[in-house]
Amino acid sequence: MALSVSIDSFLSNHQSQLGFVHHDGQVHSFRSSNILNLQKASKTPKSLSFMLSVKESKPHNAVQSNGRSSFAQTAAVKHTTGSVTRTQGLRFAVVVARFNEFITKQLLEGALGTFKNHSVQDEDIDVVWVPGSFEIGVVANRLGKSGRYHAILCIGAVIRGDTTHYDAVSNSAASGVLSAGLSSGVPCIFGVLTCDNLDQAINRAGGKSGNKGAEAALTAVS
Ligand SMILES: Nc1c(NC[C@H](O)[C@H](O)[C@H](O)CO)[nH]c(=O)[nH]c1=O
Ligand SMILES: CC(=O)[C@@H](O)COP(=O)(O)O
Hints:
Blueprint: H1 7-14, E1 20-22, E2 27-29, H2 33-41, E3 52-55, H3 72-75, E4 79-81, E5 92-97, H4 101-117, E6 125-130, H5 136-145, E7 151-159, H6 165-184, E8 188-195, H7 198-204, E9 205-207, E10 210-211, H8 212-221
Parallel strand pairs: 1-3, 5-6, 5-7, 7-8
Antiparallel strand pairs: 1-2, 3-4, 9-10
Helix pairs in contact: 4-8, 5-6
């Protein structure tokens, strides 16, 4: 059964955790200890661009060839989405693993390029190096709790070897990043490659499958 939630009940349920900027640019609700800290840390405190934009979409009936209305139900409610254009005053930390550095450096380059393309200022980005992907979570958690950043981008490259070590490191990296986000309340973005071989990693670090660091940075902005 589909769950239908109106924007009003969504807002009243989440206003303690999130701030919202309506499409008219007005802040409609805004609080939480981290966000307050962020507000203090922000160079331009009145910039609330990191908050989610609430965009109104007009109800419309998408009629399928069989004559039935397809997503009329979802089209009838307001949708909430992040913005990749309102970046003024956004601050990011990037936690990057030194292990497989020839890959993680490329991912980092991709991420910094994306930040630049989205007008995030160099002085609003801190890069913190850790030994391996296993250590990313603990540092991301600490940075998240500092209240200085709007999102933490986590970068690593775990490449399968001969033993089950790969599973331990990649699963720990994923759950570490997840826990860091949940416990700090600051989005911690998973930009850790988990690859079966070196080729896969190279392809995803600026090769033929793109640059996953760049993609993860866009997620952080959003
Ligand atoms: N094998 C990989 C590691 N291993 C190192 C661990 O992340 C960790 O630093 C060590 O176990 C000490 O706690 N790290 C990666 O990022 N990628 C690997 O492929
Ligand atoms: C992440 C890994 O599995 C790797 O670096 C360790 O390789 P191995 O399993 O051959 O010890």
